[in-house]
Write a structure and sequence with these properties.
alpha/beta; L-arginine/glycine Amidinotransferase, Chain A; 16% strand; binds arginine; arginine deiminase; EC 3.5.3.6; hydrolase; Arg_deiminase
């Protein structure tokens, strides 16, 4: 039951991760609520699942848990089986210890009487349900109750609390930093129930028992609420996983963004150093905008020396956007500017190292932290052509998940960015075609190298999150010895 958990890079071979399949709750969002719940539009849940997300699961199972999927793949998608293979509350669920569903872990902790009582009470208090509803919930069998606590839907189909449609973005609820687990503190109310569930799972599931003392929660000081409203908003701590990247064993990246506050980043630097989790913490301050709510929507890593990034944050892009302006006049006033500050343990926090451009930082990571022997290269969103760079960043061109070094999953709609991958010598292939090759044993996942795998994304991309956001890596092989 107990498993080793460790993540010390973004591209070491992925062995274990947490993902959540779109649940029924997503299908209940009405148009006027979509934005409040952080979706750009309503989605068709059946398409999102069977034409898009299920392919993601199959890919992950093929790469991480070959036996689980290979024999069962034809049965899994047989219409008669009603997708039960993908549903954690069904007998036929694939139940892998490598591709892990928080809903399943939740059902396991709900079997513990004391945890069940406390968790149901917490959720009911947060959602302001009646005492009667709380009692009713306590009588529901664990597997069904786990489903209800996530989707908000009771076994009889009635809805007792709002959906948490963003739970598919498991990245944001917690992050492994070496052998530590950092829990989030979401900026948006729409994501609050997710973090209550995550807290209970990480603190109570036997899978994380060895790591209990390594769970980090960042909170405001005890007397914080006594401050006046202005001070209060300045010192508020919010922190979401999309802004945290364990980029190398000695190095953590922290974004300051629409979602992660300056105060949170400041606390994190100190905690990381005090607890000896990493030696270097680099804070990347990006504009607080919906289009790039976390740093992982603006860049992710493909290989130790290859990155995909948003062109407007590149050296060329930033210079271009400032052309015609007097730099000193624009300077700090420019809300779109990027600030990169690096804090090293034992060195003076008042004189951090500064990087002017994102490429300088990423190059430094590739060469000095990850010991690349080749020059660092960049693929730009939309191949750096206007207006494609911005269009494709919006649909997560910069948000890829590395399954191993050089093999990443991205969305199929970002054509110009895919072109950029091809120009760097990468193979670009549709998920369905690759799965078909695996199925017919024409190709084994171990043989796949230097490839961008394209996931259908018409529905998925409406929520402003890509495959990087839809994954919480729990174990990656070390990239460097
Ligand atoms: N790591 C990420 N970039 N996650 C994207 C989350 C998208 C989600 N709809 C939200 O707004 O919260």
């Amino acid at each position: 039951m107990e498993q080793k958990l460790h993540v010390s890079s973004e591209v070491g071979t992925l062995r274990k991760l947490m993902i959540h399949s779109p649940d029924e709750g997503i299908g209940k969002v009405i148009p006027t609520k979509a934005q409040e719940w952080l979706f750009e539009d309503i989605i068709h849940v059946e398409t999102m699942r069977s034409k898009e997300y299920d392919l993601y699961i199959k890919l992950l199972l093929y790469f991480l848990d070959y036996e689980k999927i290979h024999q069962q793949i034809s049965d899994a998608d047989h219409p008669e089986n009603k997708r039960n293979f993908y549903k954690p509350d069904k007998e036929e669920y694939f139940l892998s210890d490598k591709v892990i569903e928080p809903q399943y872990l939740l059902s396991e902790i709900l079997d513990m009487r004391d945890v069940r009582n406390r968790l149901v009470a917490s959720i009911c208090a947060y959602e302001e349900t009646s005492y009667h509803t709380q009692e009713e919930l306590l009588e529901i069998p664990s597997k069904i109750l786990a489903r209800t606590l996530i989707s908000g839907i009771m076994p009889d189909g009635s809805m007792i609390f709002p959906p948490i449609p963003n739970f598919i973005f498991t990245r944001d609820i917690g992050i492994m930093i070496n052998d530590h687990i950092l829990l989030n503190k979401p900026a948006k109310a729409a994501r609050a129930r997710e973090s209550i569930l995550a807290k209970y799972i990480f603190h109570n599931h036997p899978m994380f028992a060895t790591y209990k003392d390594n769970i980090i929660e960042v909170n405001e000081p005890k007397d914080f609420f006594l401050l006046d409203n202005e001070e209060l908003s300045k010192s508020r701590i919010t922190l979401e996983g999309g802004d945290i990247m364990t980029i190398a064993p000695n190095h953590l990246l922290v974004g300051v963004s629409e979602r992660t506050s300056l105060h949170a980043a400041s606390m994190l630097v100190q905690i990381m150093h005090e607890r000896n989790v990493v030696e270097k913490v680099t804070v990347i301050r990006i504009p607080a905008k919906r289009a790039y709510m976390h740093i992982d929507t603006t860049f992710t890593q493909v290989k130790r020396n290859l990155w995909v990034m948003f062109g407007s944050f590149s050296k060329q892009g930033m210079e271009q956007e400032q052309r015609g302006f007097i730099r000193s006049l624009v300077g700090e006033q420019n809300s779109d500017h990027l600030e990169i500050l690096q804090y090293v343990k034992g060195e003076d926090y008042n004189t951090p190292k500064r990087f002017t451009y994102l490429e300088d930082l990423l190059d430094d990571i590739s060469q000095n932290d990850l010991h690349s022997t080749e020059p660092t290269e960049f693929i730009y969103s939309g191949d750096n052509q206007f207006p494609y760079g911005r269009r494709e960043q919006w649909t997560d061109s910069c948000n890829v998940l590395a399954i191993k070094e050089g093999v990443v999953i991205g969305y199929d709609r970002n054509d110009k960015t895919s072109e950029g991958f091809r120009k760097k010598g990468m193979t670009v292939i549709d998920a369905a075609e690759l799965l078909d090759k695996f199925d017919r044993e024409e190709l084994h996942p171990d043989q796949v190298e230097n490839t961008l795998i394209l996931l259908p994304s018409a529905e998925l991309s409406r929520a402003r999150g890509g495959s990087h956001c839809m994954s919480m890596p729990l174990f990656r092989d070390p990239l460097i010895g």
